[in-house]
UniProtKB/TrEMBL annotation:
Its cofactor is heme. GO terms for cellular component: membrane. It is found in: Membrane. The chain crosses the membrane at residues 6-25, 77-98. The lineage of its organism: Eukaryota, Viridiplantae, Streptophyta, Embryophyta, Tracheophyta. This is Cytochrome P450. Heme binds at residue 520. It is a single-pass membrane protein. Pathway: Alkaloid biosynthesis. CDD domains: CYP71_clan. It comes from the Eukaryota. One of its GO terms (molecular function) is monooxygenase activity. Belongs to the cytochrome P450 family. PANTHER family: CYTOCHROME P450 71A1-LIKE, CYTOCHROME P450 98A9.
Length: 583
């Protein structure tokens, strides 16, 4: 028998009501009896560690309705409310205790009242989960507040979640990030499993990210890649931070492919743009941060009223900014479409979405929230993730200059020094591919895959998992599993030369893009962007550390979010290695 949260909230509300009833201090009002308050603190000195017991003792002296002062604020306490609220909460827990069938749950730490196991999470939740799994096992259950959370930390357990029971865990939990930054759960990331999500995924795979569509937009990727190289070339011999250049490059590339380049620009006084690149970059950065936070209100319903961490306020503000921006983009594309005579040919991904939205055969009609959510996925999915992967890869390479030498040797042999690397060349560059795979193993796009949500009771590896369980697959720990990876903590690209391991979600020891129904639909675009950018940056420049910095001094500390970034980006010096006319 499931006890709806409404009973718990209602009981808690009754208790809260007893403590927040305000007595208006009108003249000539007859006030209830109560102890004399002290200056400043009022009667706060009379509260012990168990306020309800303190109130009980005070009521024996002053009566069933008493008036206290908490600071300077009057507080009227009705003993009837207190008793009834406590009785209702006690009834809820007794019903849970005696009416649930005995379940065999995975092991896990004992939860605290109210907070559950939230106290065990550090600033890097994936690392906290990893250490807990060393004690409790590869499949463990925690409580975040009162909500069950299942954590899968091994390839075997990831396979159970993402393949064996894929359809049961294919939904998403209703977290605040999905409501306020996912356009009310209307994007591909946060939408629950159902008819709309299946339709949206089909649209993405067959239309937006189809090979034909991506090939038609290759010219944009080439132009922006050359722009990046042209920006870097004048900085030759000078210290630079790659993080100052990569996000801008990926944003310009993806935004042009998604919606053309007239809606955001380098200048704030552009006639057609509504936001600068810097502003849009900040919005996307904020989206990734807020998408990965542990928001207390998601796990402890009473806390959602107060927004103690300020995350919901930020989410709401960000959602408004995105709504304004994407409405402008959609209106602009619709206006262009209306002015077109003859058959309309989509020029970018937003054009394609608008064209599809008019299809009368759609199972679920696309609303404005759906459109904005999908456009946001197009932008966010290929910007931060690609930039972070390239940045992490260079952090690793500069710790091991000999790997850069091997990459240069492969590039010189396969490509030569008279041209740049094109997308069609990548089959000739297995070592570059191995470098990228090894980087994704140690630094997956999402250290924790976005949370899954069980839509019915099921049995996983002999354990009973109830409906409504939130599930995290720890992709970070999969890539460090010593049973599957020899010298797991070391950066060794050669392991992928010797064993051509798949990264599309079929090998559960390496899941940078997830697996199953919820695997990232933009995988092919992301890999095109990362592969050719990495190859050309290595092909075009020699790389070294600045000053007296040694490879062993490079920090691999992380900043956690929906994607993880280096906490301490490194300063590098590059020198051109190709004929100067190519730059």
């Amino acid at each position: 028998m499931e006890i709806p949260w409404v009973f718990i909230v209602f009981g808690s509300w009754l208790l809260a009501l007893a403590f927040v009833l305000k007595l208006f201090n009108h003249p000539k009002r007859k006030l209830p009896p109560g102890p004399k308050p002290w200056p400043i603190i009022g009667n706060l000195n009379l509260l012990g560690s168990l306020p309800h017991v303190s109130f009980h003792h005070l009521s024996q002296k002053y009566g069933d309705l008493i008036l206290l002062k908490f600071g300077s604020k009057p507080m009227e306490i009705s003993w009837v409310f207190i008793v009834f609220g406590e009785w209702l909460l006690a009834l809820v827990f007794l019903l849970k205790l005696f009416n649930h069938p005995k379940r065999k749950l995975p092991p896990g730490p004992k939860p605290w009242p109210i907070i559950g196991n939230l106290n065990l999470l550090g600033s890097l939740p994936h690392v906290s989960f990893y250490h807990l799994s060393q004690k409790y096992g590869d499949l463990m259950v925690l409580k975040f507040g009162s909500k069950p959370v299942l954590v899968a930390s091994s390839p075997e357990m990831a396979k159970e979640i993402l393949k064996t029971h894929d359809i049961i865990f294919a939904s998403r939990p209703p977290l605040a990030a999905g409501k306020y930054t996912g356009f009310n759960y209307s994007d591909m990331l946060w939408a629950s499993y159902g008819a709309y999500w299946r339709q949206a995924r089909k649209i993405c795979l067959s239309e937006i990210f189809s090979p034909k569509r991506l090939d038609s937009l290759e010219y944009i990727r080439i132009e922006e890649r050359q722009t990046l190289i042209s920006r870097l070339f004048p900085q030759s011999g000078k210290p630079i931070l790659l993080k100052d250049h990569l996000p801008r490059f990926t944003l310009r590339t993806i935004s042009r492919m998604a919606m053309s380049d007239k809606y955001c620009s380098d200048q704030s006084n552009s006639d057609t743009s509504i936001a600068t690149l810097e502003r849009l970059q900040w919005m996307l950065d904020e989206w990734f941060v807020l998408g990965g936070v542990i928001n207390l209100g998601d796990w402890i319903p009473l806390f959602s009223w107060f927004d103690l961490q300020g995350y919901v306020r930020r989410m709401k503000a960000l959602g408004k900014n995105f709504t304004q921006f994407y409405k402008y983009v959609i209106d602009g594309h619709n206006a262009t479409k209306m002015q077109t005579t003859g058959d309309f040919a989509p020029k970018d991904m937003v054009d394609a979405l608008l064209h599809i939205s008019n299809d009368p055969n759609l199972v679920v009609k696309l609303t404005s929230d759906h459109m904005m959510g999908l456009i946001n996925n197009l932008l966010a999915g290929g910007t931060d993730t690609a930039a972070a992967t390239i940045e992490w890869t260079f952090q690793e390479l500069l710790r091991r200059p000999n790997i850069i030498d091997k990459a240069h040797h492969e590039l010189d042999k396969a490509i030569g020094r008279e041209r740049w690397v094109e997308e069609e060349d990548f089959s000739k560059l297995p070592y570059i591919d191995a470098i990228i795979k090894e980087s994704l193993r140690l630094h997956p796009l999402c250290a924790l895959l976005p949370p899954h949500y069980s839509i019915e009771d099921c049995n996983v590896a002999g354990y009973d998992i109830p409906k409504g369980t939130i599930v995290y697959v720890n992709a970070w720990s999969l890539g460090r599993n010593s049973k599957y990876w020899d010298r797991a903590e070391e950066f060794i690209p050669e392991r992928f030369i010797e064993n051509n391991i798949d990264i599309k979600g079929q090998n559960f020891a390496l899941l940078p893009f997830g697996s199953g129904r919820r695997r990232c639909p933009g995988y092919s675009l992301g890999m095109k962007l990362v592969r050719t950018t990495m190859a050309n940056l290595l092909h075009g420049f020699n790389w070294k550390l600045t000053g007296d910095m040694r490879p062993e001094d490079i920090s691999m500390e992380e900043i956690y979010g929906l994607t993880t970034h280096p906490k301490k980006p490194i300063s590098v010096i590059m020198e051109p290695r190709l004929p100067l006319h190519l730059y």
